[in-house]
Structure formats: C-alpha cells, structure tokens
C-alpha cells in the first residue's frame, strides 16, 4: 500500500493490499460524539483515494474503487467493489452504494440514499431525504431515494425523498423527479414526466454504420418458427446490463484474471453450495483439470459413459488415461451404476459420471461403489446447472464437478468458458494452478499446466446471467412438466420424474423408433429438433483403437438411434410449446 506522509489515518482503519492514499487525505475521521478508533473503517484492496478527500470513521469502501480529489464520505456509508466517486462529491452518512456505480463530479447524496449496482449518477446530481428540512421533527422522517440497478441519472437532476428510480431507467439531465420512475422508463422535465422507454433509446453502439442493430440484418439463417433454442431473446433482454459489464472490463483493461473472475467464482460456488469454484477456459478443460487434480494421469483408466458428448472422453485422454465405457440406464440415458463394479480394474483411477440432459446420474449408488473401491468421483455437470439429487447438486457428491458455460447451456457465456466446483481446498488449489501454467509465482511454475484461464470478459457476462439462472431453470421445469403432461400416453419414452431428483432440463428428450419420420414431420411443421447424441463414443472413429464393435453397449446404441430433443429454453412461449406437443400427438395418433 502507499500512504502519503501528509495523509492522516486514524486508528481502527483497515487498509487492503495495494491501497493508495494521497496527500492531505483524512481516513477514519471520527464523527461527532465518537472517539478516534471507536468505529471501524475498511478500505478494500486496490482502492485509490485522491488528495484532500475525507473518509469518516465507520465507512466501508470495497475493492478497486476510486475516490477523486476533495470528496467527502460520511460515517456508516458502504460502497461496493469497483465503484468510482468523482471530484468534490459529498456522500452523507448512512448511504448505501452498490458495485460498479459511477458518481460524477460535484454530485451530492443525502443521508439514507441507496444506489444499486451499475447505476450512473451524472455531475451535480442532488438527492434529498426530507421534504421540510426546517421542521423541528425532520430528523424523524429521513428517507432518501432508492436508485435501482443500472439506472442512469443525467447531470444537474434533482431526486426527491422517498421515491424509487426503477432499474435500467433514464432520468434526463436537469430533470426534477418528484415521483417514482418505473423500470426501463425515460423521464424528462420539471417536474419529470415519462417521455419514453429505455428500450426505445438508441445506443451509440447501435448507431455505428454497419451495426446489425441498424439494418436488422443477420449473417445467420433465420430460425424456424419454433426454434430448438433461442439465445437471441435472452441476450437481448439483458443487453444493457451485459454492455455495462463488458464495458467495465474494457475500460479498466482487466482482460486476464480480472476481479470479475474472482467475483464470478465466489458467486457460482455459492449457487452450487460448494466451498470453492475455479473458472477455466471451457467445459472440456474443466473435466480434464478436475481429473488431474484427483490424481488421474498416464496409464490410468477412468470409467465413464459412451452416451455423451465426445469432450467427456477427450478430457480423459488428455490426462494420458484411457476411457473405460459402461453402458447406460435405459430409463435415463445416464451411466448404469450396476455395471460399474465389473469395469473396475487395478488401473482404475476415477469414475466420471455425466449428468445428461439436466438429470443427475444415480450418485447414491455411484458414490457407494466409489467408497467401497476407494476411488474419487468427478462429475461431468456440463448439462446440470441447478440440477440436484436429495437436495445436493453437482460438486456435493463427488470430489469435484466440471461445468461448461458454452453459450447454449442453462448458464451460457459469449463463447467458450467452464468451471470446476469442489469442497476440497487441495482440488481447488491444483485446478487453479493447472489452469495458469502451473504457476506458484509469476515466473515460477511448480508443475506443468496450460493456459486454461477463464477470460475476464466471459466472467463478466456470466455474472450478469447467474442471478437469473434459478428463474430460468424454474421456467424450464414448468415447460418440462407441461410436455410430460401433454405427451402422456403416446408411444414414446421420456425421462420420467423420480423421487429426490430435481431436473434443470438442459434439453427435453424423447425416444422413438420412428425418429427420422417424426423429425421430418416436425420440420415441415416449422419445428426444430436436435439429436444428442447420434453416435455413441465407442463407435466414434477417434476411439476405434479401443476395439468396441457394434453391440458392445446396446442400451447406449439404442439411445443414439432413438433420442430426439424438442424445443426447450426459458423464454419458449407456452403456445409454441403446446403446438409442439400437439404436432407430436398428431403424428402418432392422426389427431
């Protein structure tokens, strides 16, 4: 840390690593009625406080914040990570400022003002907390405004007490806001009135010549009327939040291992209920590094399923080990635990079940077998974000769970990304080292690793989406339940609900011996479908060296020949889903 010799730092001030406090600053100044050091003051890692600023005792400022010259922050105020406070800003006591907030020069926040994450407050904006400040009882009814996430307040605006500025709303410069503003609304005037919505506002990015938002053109084929998946709807609904998150990374040049990675890791670990999460470059790397972390290496064998994407077995091969396939359960397509013991050999080093389609594998039985044979379990959870069995999700059963954040997943990035979750600190330490060239220090590598870090830009995108994941999964479950209801009685097989299992429906998959005819029928009706996966791994040319002839794993081969996935995504309109179900019934019954 760097503290100027002319700065005054009072007792009971905790300064994080890399903090800079410039000339003539006062940090931890005791408010009236308190003694020096009576109230704790916290300044987070990497925060910079410019010259002549005063930070009162009892203030908490997060990591990587910036407080410009001549600013005053009063007691009992909290400021979240990554926020900036402009020149000559005054923040009165008991204010709450979220993460990545921008307070521009000479703005003033009255007591009890709340500003949520990603809001932007323009220069000389003033908030108030009481309508009659000269009243003898004014202190009894202080109530500052609440400025919700992503709101933008133009310069010289005045925000009245005890009102709410809705999320992602826009208050035009010079406005006097005397009543609450709805989410996504644009207001202007004295007093401010609604003049439009933020959805109608043109973004400078959109007005760049050649932008697809100007012409409305796309370089991809227009989807069928009922697409299998629809990423565009979801991403467009989050466009403003995503742009703010990405712009924050670009503005701060935090492209490699930025704080957004650590923040996402902490949040995703909390979502999964695990002690640790480590972001990596993709789902394949997540499986490979998790296997390496539990000791899998050259000459070993890893037991897994042949009915999965090839990345599962690729990751085994990447460690130098050999995949040993075990057939799948006819009812779910997941690995059949009853067949695992016969596949265990002296060279077996781990068991790698896959939670296929959003249904957890039978982890009760698998973990019992693993314990009996003293084998670690690594879960391939690439399709299981939010799935659980007996209240425990991926990472709470095995030594680690590997996730993919491929764009189409329940939680998808804007490219390749992945993660490993675990309760084991040693597994966390090893995966973190392997992803970053095995480094113990910047130029000291304790082991051989690779460049498998999670990009900061992808972490920023995932952090925007993660709070929405539970709601998206619930929407998928409702769609899945509706499919099960409407398809009951048809000559198809589905993955039926089972006690203790909570599915997250990455896809909704049926089985039928008439797959090709059904797929053609649905396609002509404007309904997209998918096949996950048409060739079992033991029949892939890449694994011909394992010498598994056709018929080696008959159940997996039946799934590969018969499975068909129907449209499934959180924003799928109910009328579209109902149309899909009706067309299936028409195909099989003629009605």
Descriptive report:
- This protein has 591 residues and is α/β, with parallel strands linked by helices.
- It folds into three domains: 199 residues, Hexapeptide repeat proteins (UDP N-Acetylglucosamine Acyltransferase, domain 1, 3 Solenoid), CATH 2.160.10; 209 residues, 3-Layer(aba) Sandwich (Aspartate Aminotransferase, domain 2); 123 residues, Aspartate Aminotransferase, domain 1, CATH 3.90.1150.
- The model has no long low-confidence stretch (mean pLDDT 93).
Topology-level CATH name of the largest domain? Aspartate Aminotransferase, domain 2
The CATH architecture assignment of the largest domain turns out to be 3-Layer(aba) Sandwich
Q: Write down the overall geometry.
A: globular
Tell me the structural class.
Answer: alpha/beta
Strand content: 15-25%
Mean pLDDT: 93
Total number of β-strand segments? 42
Our measurement of the CA-to-CA distance between the termini, rounded to an integer number of angstroms, reads 75 Å
Q: Which percent range fits the helix content?
A: 25-40%
Low-confidence stretches: none
Could you name the CATH homologous superfamily of the largest domain? Type I PLP-dependent aspartate aminotransferase-like (Major domain)
Query: Strands of the biggest beta sheet: in what spatial order?
Result: 1-4-7-10-13-16-19-22-25-27-28
Question: How many individual domains?
Answer: 3
Radius of gyration: 28 Å
Count of alpha/pi helices:
13
The main β sheet shows up as: 11 strands, mixed
Name of the top-level CATH class of the largest domain: Alpha Beta
């Amino acid at each position: 840390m760097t503290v100027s010799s002319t700065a005054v730092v009072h007792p009971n001030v905790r300064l994080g690593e890399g903090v800079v406090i410039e000339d003539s600053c006062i940090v931890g100044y005791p408010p009236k009625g308190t003694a020096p050091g009576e109230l704790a003051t916290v300044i987070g890692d990497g925060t910079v406080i410019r010259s002549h600023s005063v930070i009162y005792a009892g203030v908490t400022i997060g990591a990587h914040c910036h407080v410009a010259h001549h600013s005053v922050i009063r007691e009992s105020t909290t400021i979240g990570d990554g926020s900036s406070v402009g020149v000559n800003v005054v923040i009165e006591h008991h204010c709450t400022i979220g993460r990545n907030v921008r307070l521009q020069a000479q703005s003033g926040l009255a007591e009890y003002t709340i500003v949520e994450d990603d809001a932007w407050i323009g220069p000389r904006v003033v908030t108030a907390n009481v309508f009659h400040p000269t009243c003898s009882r004014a202190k009894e009814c202080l109530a500052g405004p609440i400025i919700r996430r992503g709101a933008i307040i133009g310069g010289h605006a005045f925000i009245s007490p005890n009102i709410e500025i809705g999320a992602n709303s826009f208050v035009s410069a010079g406005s006097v806001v005397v009543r609450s503003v709805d989410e996504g609304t644009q207001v202007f005037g004295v007093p401010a009135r609604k003049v439009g919505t933020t959805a109608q506002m043109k973004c400078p990015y959109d007005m760049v010549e050649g932008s697809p938002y100007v012409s409305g053109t796309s370089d991809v084929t227009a989807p069928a009327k009922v697409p299998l998946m629809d990423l565009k709807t979801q991403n467009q609904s989050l466009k403003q939040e995503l742009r703010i998150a990405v712009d924050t990374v670009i503005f701060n040049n935090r492209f490699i291992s930025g704080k957004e990675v650590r923040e996402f890791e902490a949040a995703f670990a909390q979502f999964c209920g695990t002690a640790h999460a480590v972001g990596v470059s993709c789902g394949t790397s997540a499986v490979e590094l998790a296997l390496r972390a539990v000791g899998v290496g050259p000459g070993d064998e890893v037991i897994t399923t042949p009915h999965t994407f090839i990345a599962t077995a690729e990751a085994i091969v990447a460690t130098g080990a050999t995949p040993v396939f075990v057939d799948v359960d006819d009812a779910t397509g997941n690995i059949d635990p009853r067949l695992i013991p016969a596949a265990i050999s002296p060279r077996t080093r781990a068991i790698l079940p896959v939670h296929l389609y959003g249904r957890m594998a039978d982890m009760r039985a698998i973990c019992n077998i693993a314990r009996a044979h003293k084998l670690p379990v690594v879960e391939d959870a690439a399709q299981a974000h939010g799935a659980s069995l007996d209240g425990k999700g991926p990472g709470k059963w095995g030594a680690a769970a590997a996730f993919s954040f491929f764009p189409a997943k329940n939680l998808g990035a804007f490219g390749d990304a992945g993660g490993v979750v675990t309760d084991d600190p040693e597994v966390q330490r090893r995966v973190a080292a392997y992803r970053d060239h095995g480094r113990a220090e910047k130029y000291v590598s304790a082991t051989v690793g690779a460049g498998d870090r999670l990009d900061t830009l992808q972490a920023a995108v995932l952090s925007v989406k993660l709070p929405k994941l539970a709601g998206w999964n619930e929407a998928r479950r409702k769609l899945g339940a509706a499919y099960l209801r409407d398809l009951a009685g048809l000559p198809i097989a589905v993955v039926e609900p089972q006690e203790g299992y909570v599915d997250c429906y990455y896809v909704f998959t049926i089985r039928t011996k008439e797959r090709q005819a059904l797929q053609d029928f649905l396609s002509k009706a404007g309904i997209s479908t998918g096949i996950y996966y048409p060739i079992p791994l033991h029949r892939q040319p890449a694994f011909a060296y394992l010498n598994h002839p056709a018929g080696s794993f008959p159940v997996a081969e039946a799934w590969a020949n018969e499975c068909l996935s129907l449209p499934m995504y959180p924003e799928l309109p109910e009328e579209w889903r109902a149309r899909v179900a009706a067309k299936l019934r028409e195909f099989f019954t003629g009605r």
